């Protein structure tokens, strides 16, 4: 089963990391990702631009376009992974490894219903 | 990242909110700052043991407030304190309660008020910037002094003077109304722009130590944009700063010499910052409420979109500068427009355009640099030399002077008209 691991964190906090701190976190995360990739279990990974660049479309009739992210909360969705896991426990293990590499914030683990890898080159 | 680095980042990010709330409470910059410092000291002791609080800002506000009140009591100074001062017994509940209140309108207004106090109109621009970097960003006096290339003592004095002036000016602490808020927003935006310029206009040996100012300005702009998500001008400002800063790595060579836009290695441009800047200006344009920051960002976006210098849409840049001239008439804007005009309609037309600016830009380095470049393109080398000599006399940095000297050397080498470089 594919699991999406959605990364939530306080954007103010992540935004106040220095370039070096940011690079150090990314490097630690890369180690976890490489492991998964070697096992052929890693799907697409995305880091999103800050929520200040986000726009929200409310599907009312007529649809309403709003500036900013969907939900104004303490923690924002900053990115996601798609990982192949046998079950939830395994997905939680992956999330724990990621969490050790990048402490703070929250991961939401969601089983993937429809998965289309797409054709976009990064 | 180590534990302490995490705490540092948390303290930095909570700072504007916490100092802003403490200022509302104590109505005195020094007291608020001191309360925040004390709270940080306690955080450094408590957080590694107890783990991070759910809401660092709320924790710092509460602890800072209590420590300061204790101190007042100890000193037995009869200062009247606001009535909602209650002994807080259970830390968790109190934190939750404060966090809840912070999510409301106070949060926005506290930070805005803090920024606004720093950009008070009675303060000269340099003091505004210094005060904001000290109070809002929490840079040390030493760091700020270094960025401004002055001694620590001089900067300390500048900040003390600014604080005294703010205290004298009786800045209102009440929640601003709608009209006032939008006025404040404009002056805060201008101050952030000034901070950025302090970093951006540095060059040569000073570029490296001043570039943190650019990053700080971007951080503040993002903060402001999160508070006011539907203000196209704040989107424009943030986009402008991101797009300009994206070129930072390409703007100077190893010796600190200026590299002109058209000679820059565009592979060194930071594509992540460009992507964010373009996304923001894209979003801002949708509002169809144009403004000077959006127009400047749109100009920067045209440069950022050009993969090669010859791909640059100079005609569109000319139009945008034309729009900016209407919104913000200034000889400097016209001078910049003239560079675009020289690309579209030739140096003759551009020279004609800047001729009337001479009296007002008589002491402006770039005026003579640009004028010299136009004259050189037209083969009027002797006049070009005169302009360049004047530019060297007016240069602010050694890199600027060295850059103009390179033009003069080129003039000396060949008296043939050649395609010269504008600013």
Radius of gyration of chain A: 16 Å
Overall mean pLDDT score of chain B?
A: 85
CATH architecture of chain A: 2-Layer Sandwich
Number of strands of chain B: 0
Strand order of the largest sheet of chain A: 2-5-1-6
CATH class value of chain A: Alpha Beta
Question: Which pair of chains forms the biggest interface, and how many residues does each contribute?
Answer: A-B, 24 and 25 residues
Q: Which structural class is indicated by helix and strand composition of chain A?
A: alpha+beta
Helix proportion of residues of chain A, in percent?
25-40%
Q: Residue ranges of chain A: pLDDT <50 for 5 or more in a row?
A: none
Count of extended strands of chain A = 6
Number of domains of chain A: 1
Q: How helical, in percent, are the residues of chain B?
A: 55-70%
Order of helices and strands of chain A: EHHEEEEHE
Question: What characterizes the major β-sheet of chain A?
Answer: 4 strands, antiparallel
CATH homologous superfamily grouping of chain A? Dimeric alpha+beta barrel
The first-to-last residue Cα distance of chain A is 24 Å
Our measurement of the CA-to-CA distance between the termini of chain B, rounded to an integer number of angstroms, reads 42 Å
Number of helices of chain A: 3
Descriptive overview:
The complex is a heterodimer of chains A (122) and B (423). By secondary structure, chain A is an alpha+beta fold. Chain A contains three helices and six strands; from the N terminus they run E-H-H-E-E-E-E-H-E. In chain A, the strands form two sheets. Chain A has a four-stranded antiparallel sheet. Chain A has a two-stranded antiparallel ribbon with strand order 3-4. In chain A, strand 3 (55-58) and strand 4 form a beta hairpin. The two termini of chain A are 24 Å apart. The model of chain A has no long low-confidence stretch (mean pLDDT 89). Among the domains of chain B are: 3-103, no CATH class; 108-169 and 179-229, no CATH class. In chain B, 70% of the residues lie in helices and 0% in strands. Chain B has helices spanning 3-26, 29-50, 56-75, 91-102, 105-118, 125-135, 141-148, 152-168, 178-200, 207-227, 232-245, 271-285, 292-305, 314-327, 331-345, 347-354, 365-377, 381-394, 398-413. The longest helix of chain B is centred in the N-terminal third of the chain and has 24 residues, at 3-26. The A-B interface holds A 10-13, 15-17, 21, 24-25, 49-53, 55, 65-68, 74, 102-104 and B 1, 5-6, 9-10, 12-14, 52, 55, 219, 222-223, 225-226, 229-230, 235, 238, 275-276, 279-280, 283, 286.
